């Protein structure tokens, strides 16, 4: 699915990208603090709520968004507005597919927060529609990607730790979400496709990015899952995989949890990539890695190489800039988050859910357009989260 381009774009160059939001995004601000005359510019044009236009107005009043931001009475009105270029989907996982489908069919480019969909069949359907309609589509990667991932990939390409032979990626949560939230919360509700696996699938993305060429698909996948008693979604999931380069095997382990931090030191996330001549360690928040270490010569260095990662851009800006760059270059997918990677992650998660008998309601799992609203209204989780959508 690489090297896909748009056949037509209205303007020769996208200088100002108009965004519309479906759902809730805390601390969203596409208005650039930097004034780079050569860089992309963004405008948050509209917000829509599944509940009412009044709810959308409450969202606009509650967050730092431009005063000129419009509110729409429903999602359909927003995606069909000629003022909107790109639709940002920030609804619960259960609604990603139907919301993205609505926007693509209306002729809008789409960025959908992870996880892209509930299952691989839904992701395939969205990619097919985006390609047919020549529209940009990307799974959102937030701040976790730019500095830490690019630096890690550079070190691996340069052979800094030799041949990769083992990868560990753990993503947890600071406080025990399951202890303090009800079964109707966004992350714990089956009707909203909750659970650690879909919410913390960044662990799988990190593993795939650390692999050498030719070893992208696992030859073996085994998993264990601890389920949240109140709703049956996964509270903690561990996935062990084996990848083959043709001459050797690479072992990988991904862990995702809604009830514990990743490590005993309280780190919310860490990634360890072990090679034949050293290892790379990444620590920090799950979306914003803060420190990268390189240990060389069988870890014998008394002082390892260390780089402190500091994202200078405001939240979401690198992601928004990447979208603008891709649209300007007539790309349908981002090299930073290609369709093939998103699809493979969905396929692995489908297998893990099957192994552990985790299913969501049929109306959430379907890859067909919804002819009626999903049975679980989005505002059902407001009381436990305080979020408005």
What characterizes the major β-sheet?
A: 8 strands, mixed
Q: Span between N and C termini?
A: 33 Å
Assembly level: single chain
Total number of beta strands: 14
CATH homolog superfamily of the largest domain: Dihydrodipicolinate Reductase, domain 2
Shape: globular
Quickly name the level 1 CATH class of the largest domain.
Alpha Beta
Trace the largest sheet across and list its strands.
Answer: 8-9-10-7-11-12-13-14
SSE pattern: EEHEHEHEHEHEHHHEEEEEEEHHHH
Task: Produce the secondary structure layout.
Blueprint (H helix, E strand, L loop, with lengths): L15 E8 L17 E8 L4 H10 L7 E3 L2 H5 L6 E5 L2 H13 L3 E4 L7 H14 L3 E3 L6 H12 L6 E8 L5 H4 L15 H4 L2 H9 L9 E8 L6 E11 L4 E9 L11 E7 L2 E7 L4 E8 L8 E4 L8 H12 L10 H17 L6 H4 L16 H4 L4
Parallel strand pairs: 1-2, 1-4, 2-3, 4-5, 5-6, 7-10
Antiparallel strand pairs: 7-11, 8-9, 9-10, 11-12, 12-13, 13-14
Helix pairs in contact: 3-4, 4-10
Concise description?
Belongs to the Gfo/Idh/MocA family. This is D-xylose 1-dehydrogenase (NADP(+), D-xylono-1,5-lactone-forming). The protein is an alpha/beta fold and 389 residues long.
Name the descriptors.
389 residues, Rossmann fold, 2 domains, eight-stranded mixed sheet, disordered N terminus, D-xylose 1-dehydrogenase (NADP(+), D-xylono-1,5-lactone-forming), Gfo/Idh/MocA_domain, Gfo/Idh/MocA-like_OxRdtase_N
């Amino acid at each position: 699915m690489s090297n896909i381009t748009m056949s037509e774009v209205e303007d020769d160059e996208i200088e100002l990208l108009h965004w519309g939001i479906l759902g809730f995004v805390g601390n969203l601000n596409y208005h650039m603090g930097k004034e780079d005359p050569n860089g992309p510019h963004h405008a948050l044009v509209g917000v829509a709520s599944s509940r009412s236009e009044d709810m959308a107005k409450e969202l606009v009043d509650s967050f730092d968004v431009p005063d000129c931001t419009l509110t729409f009475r429903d999602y359909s009105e927003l995606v069909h507005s000629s003022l909107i270029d790109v639709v940002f989907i920030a609804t619960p996982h259960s609604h990603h597919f139907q919301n993205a489908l609505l926007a693509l069919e209306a002729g809008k480019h789409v960025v959908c927060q992870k996880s892209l969909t509930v299952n691989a069949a839904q992701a395939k359907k969205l990619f097919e529609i985006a390609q047919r309609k020549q529209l940009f589509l990307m799974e959102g990667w937030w701040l976790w990607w730019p500095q830490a991932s690019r630096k890690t990939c550079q070190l691996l390409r340069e052979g800094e730790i030799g041949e990769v032979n083992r990868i560990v990626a753990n993503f947890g949560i600071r406080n025990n979400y399951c202890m303090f939230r009800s079964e109707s919360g966004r992350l714990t509700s089956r009707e909203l496709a909750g659970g650690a696996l879909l919410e913390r699938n960044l662990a799988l993305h990190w593993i795939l990015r650390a692999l050498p060429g030719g070893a992208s698909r696992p030859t073996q996948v085994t998993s264990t899952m601890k389920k949240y008693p109140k709703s049956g979604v996964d509270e903690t999931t561990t996935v062990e995989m084996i990848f083959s380069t043709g001459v050797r095997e690479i072992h990988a382990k991904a862990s995702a949890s809604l009830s514990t931090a990743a490590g005993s030191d309280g780190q919310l996330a860490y990634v360890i990539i072990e090679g034949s001549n050293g290892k790379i360690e990444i620590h920090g928040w799950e979306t914003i890695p803060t420190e990268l270490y390189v240990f060389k010569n069988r870890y014998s260095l008394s002082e390892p190489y260390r780089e402190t990662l500091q994202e200078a851009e405001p939240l979401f800006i690198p992601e928004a800039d990447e979208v603008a760059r891709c649209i300007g270059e007539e790309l349908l997918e981002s090299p930073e988050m290609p369709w093939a990677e998103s699809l493979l992650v969905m396929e692995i998660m489908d297998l893990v859910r099957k192994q552990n008998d985790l299913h969501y309601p049929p109306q959430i799992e379907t890859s067909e357009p919804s002819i009626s609203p999903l049975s679980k209204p989005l505002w059902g989780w407001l009381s436990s989260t305080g979020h408005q959508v």
